[in-house]
Amino acid sequence: YRLRLQGLTRAEQWSNDPGAAYETGELSEEYAPLYHSSQYFAEVNGKKIANRFMDIAEGRQTVRVNETENYNAYTDAWVPNSRTACMKYFARGLYWNEPLYFAIESVEDSVNVGVENSIYLYGNWTVWDSWRLDKLESGDIDLICNQQVAAIQEELDGLKPQVSLMEAYNEAKDAIENASTLEEIMNISDVLARTPNLIRRSHLAYEAFKEAIQALADERAERDDLNGAATDLLDQYLNDDAEPSENFPNGTYLNIMEARTLSEEELTAEIAFARSLFENAIMTSISEGSDVSNIIKNAAFDEDGNFKDWETSRTYESPNGYNFSSNTGFTDIYPVAGTWNTAFTVSQYIVADIPDGIYELEAPAFYRPGGNGTGDQEGNDYVPADLFINDFYTPVMNIYAGRVLYADAINGVNCRYDASGDPDAPHNGESTSAQDWDTGDGYVPEQRQAVSFAFGGGRYINNVYGIVQGGELRLGIRNTGKPWYESGMTMWGKFKLTYRGYNEEAIEAMVENFQKRLDALKWGRDEQLVMSYSQSHIDNIEAYLAEVEAATSTEAKLAAIKKVNDEFNTILDSYDAYAELLALGEYCLDKADEYLEENPDLSDAFDVAYNEIFEHYMSGDLTDEEARNYCQSILNDPALGGGYYVQGDLLDAEGNKLAYDVRNTNYPMTAQEDGTFTATVFVQDRSNLANSDARAGIYLSRMEERYECQYSSRRFITPAVNKFKVVLDTNDAHNDFQTVGGQYKVT
Q1: pTM, whole model, 2 decimals?
Q2: CB within 8 Å of 672: residues ≥ 6 apart
Q3: What confidence score (pLDDT) does residue 66 get?
Q4: Residue 139 pLDDT exceeds 80
């Protein structure tokens, strides 16, 4: 049988750029051995015969077909760059590939035909059409043999794969011309068809292995702190040429590269083995100042776009749009992780054999409080985004605090103020909307491609500290969203973790960060007016910081530091308590305006309540518990229409029906000594009405709030079912309690 088809392959995206595969209009000798690899095949009883597709440049034409095509000035010719163009080229009879010959000897034989490729670059193409299968009236097995001789890929000799693969291919090359039986030819052809791509993959695997070990050697060269037996073992692996042994089951690096006996899978495992040698050397050499970033998985956030190896949660995503991803920006400059318009936590829990003490987390990171140009351009606005180690949280840098001044700005190095007019800058003309924002005296990055230059240029470095005990730590970054800035942006890069022991410099750095955080809290309340909290926490923090300064021993300093940190960690709860105060104050102000004409006395009462609430909010003179209790007292103040009331299909004292949707004060609930509220109510008899109207509905109210049943079903009151969970209706569900007419005691 003879199998023919039209088709072509392209090694990568067509480009005339210097160094590209098709720079001269033909597939370059540098690319051909590895990437001219797509093939079509016939497989008879599991034995494969194959030919490679024509390269796209082999069918180039000097006359266009007027579809999407690519031109090359070296050859003054065109090639197709769309399926429609390919169809027109095929219609002209172009790109017919060499035929495949195969033999079928029995009706029991199985035949499989197809196309395949496992080696590719970005923009790789394989396009085919018009299969032709002919049964030859006469034929000789020499047709199969000659076709395989012609298809031998001599250019593979320049690759350096696993030795056994190249030996097998060379043996098959030598044997095919002398094969005399169909069985011999098919066995040899199977090797010639399957092995080339295995050779290519193996070559790339050895190159990847070499690159990985070189990167490891570079890391080792930067680590003067490594010492001991584990380090000696690592150095021996990297530098010596030693045969396989108990310590090195596959030999050392140099021996592996010379012998080339390992498969792709074994090389992947060997990289992990070499990495384990390095990590063991680190873990057995830890002392003050040791870099232990190796215990963090995907520390650079560059292994995928979805925070591989990190736990993520998003507590709020703005309805106006948001994003949340890693390994973004210009990743060749610096891979960026980040979010926009999102409250989130990204963390990693680690258990490792590391000593107790203070650890330093270093990372480029910033928070932008709102859109471009929003807020204080000096960078004083309060930042709700933190880097953290365990429960030690430290706000990241404000984007404007890290702006690069005009005099220090180098486009394409530490900033990107010109995205399209600087031919010397990397990525000039790409992603042009990602260009720095001009603050009036410098630049801050806008969009992630610009962030890559800021981080790559060494800007926005944060150093935060935390205490670790028992080898357990959770580290990461978060944005609490408190306060919330619409279009707020949190960006960060590679994490570096360093052991600092209990040295005085680390303690001083922790105290300095605490003081900056304290100053930021005061600014956020007193100057920026975006938040409030109980002044008692500020007083406690200042007192505990004084304890740190006064302490004369490391133990006493650390004890005071933990007290400072614990007090900082109460601020978010205090923020929530005071946010309730603010919301209630705004409600009272609105009501004062609403009742100004209709009920002046009630308007005055709401106005008095607002002024009192606002005074507490601004001064922070209430503890968190006092603030919450104070809110409840306002909400339950009858003079303001506060307190709980039963509402719904009820009767007044004269037996008149009350409107379901009209809030009234006929049935106030009375507070009891045990903290509950009760009321006795009369419910309308609606049994003479049809369908669901025959049921009476009741619910609870407090000022503007509506309380109802937790469930949309199972809310009918009966003598047997008369206890329900009451919830605040936050989404207009209107799951009222349903019943028949009568007298009820509601608690």
Answers
A1: 0.80
A2: 678
A3: 87
A4: no
Share of the chain above pLDDT 70, in %: 100
Contact 509, 465 (CB under 8 A): yes
DSSP structure string for 361-387: EEEEEEEE-SSTT-S-TTS-S---EEE
Burial of 659 (0-12, 13-18, 19+ CB in 10 A): exposed
Residue type, 411: N
Contact criterion met (CB below 8 Å) for 567 and 513: no
- Which residue ranges make up each domain of the chain? 2-203, 295-501, 572-639, 643-746
Q: Could you read off the pLDDT of 560-595 as tens digits, one per residue? A: 999 999 999 999 999 999 999 999 999 999 999 999
- Flag whether pLDDT at 620 surpasses 90: yes
* CA atoms lying within 13 Å on the CB side of residue 745: 5
d(CA 508, CA 502): 11
Q: Are 592 and 641 in contact (CB under 8 A)?
A: no
CA distance linking residue 326 with residue 308, whole number of Å? 9
Q: 3-state DSSP: the chain helix, strand, coil percent, rounded to 5?
A: 35, 25, 40
Q: Is residue 269 classed as helix, strand or coil in its secondary structure?
A: helix
Residue with tokens 């890391």: 219
Q: How far apart are CA 381 and CA 687, in angstroms?
A: 62
Token pair 């017919």 in the structure block, residue: 96
Q: If you write DSSP's letter for every residue of 572-628 in order, what string do you get? A: HHHHHHHHHHHHHHHHHHHHHHHTTTT-HHHHHHHHHHHHHHHHHHHHT-S-HHHHH
Distance CA 365, CA 401 (A): 12
Helices (H), 595-730: 600-619, 624-635
| CATH 2.60.120.260 correct for 295-501 | yes
The pLDDT value given to residue 151: 94
- 148 residue type, one letter: Q
How far apart are alpha carbons 574 and 521 in whole angstroms? Answer: 12
Rounded CA gap, 176 and 153, in Å? 13
